[in-house]
Design brief:
Blueprint (H helix, E strand, L loop, with lengths): L4 E6 L13 H18 L4 H8 L1 E2 L2 E8 L8 E11 L4 E9 L5 E9 L2 E2 L10 H7 L7
Antiparallel strand pairs: 1-4, 2-7, 3-6, 4-5, 5-6
């Protein structure tokens, strides 16, 4: 699937284990960075948006497949897109590829829900969030 946006990352020492391989948990930080960058690319600041709308968007499901290792010094591209938006869920999809070769390192997805920031009660996504993110929805 062609993803909507790519964020380039250079694998740093702090990203790797003693063997110089990216530790699996670091990929989830890469995904968060790509998501943050996606909001900016679409014209919004996620933190300001969440505060203004008095909502949080917790992750409710995560799936990842690790295909090949990323190593210290590698330049990787983190692709992000949205596979679905419903009233109460947004599904983000990701891939991580080596920039020079296109080698697939990881593919993943996670879903986010919408909750009231005061009560933590679930609620529908505000129209403003849906309108902002809709351009990143992948064509079927």
């Amino acid at each position: 699937m062609g993803l909507f946006h790519h964020l380039d990352v250079r694998v740093m020492w702090s990203d790797t284990d003693p063997a110089g391989i990216v530790w699996f948990g670091v990929f989830f930080r890469y995904f968060e960075h790509a998501e943050e960058d996606l909001y900016r690319r679409l014209g919004g600041d996620r933190t300001a948006l969440l505060r203004r709308l008095n909502i949080f968007m917790p992750r409710t499901a995560l799936q990842a497949g690790f295909r090949s290792p990323a190593r210290l010094g590698d330049e990787v591209s983190v692709g992000i897109g949205i596979s679905a938006i419903t009233e109460r869920r947004i599904a983000f999809t990701f891939d991580v590829q080596e920039r020079a070769t296109g080698r697939l390192i990881c593919d993943a997805s996670y879903r986010v829900a919408c909750v009231d920031a005061t009560t933590f009660a679930t609620r529908p996504f505000p129209d403003e969030v849906v309108a902002l993110l809709t351009p990143a929805v992948a064509a079927p």
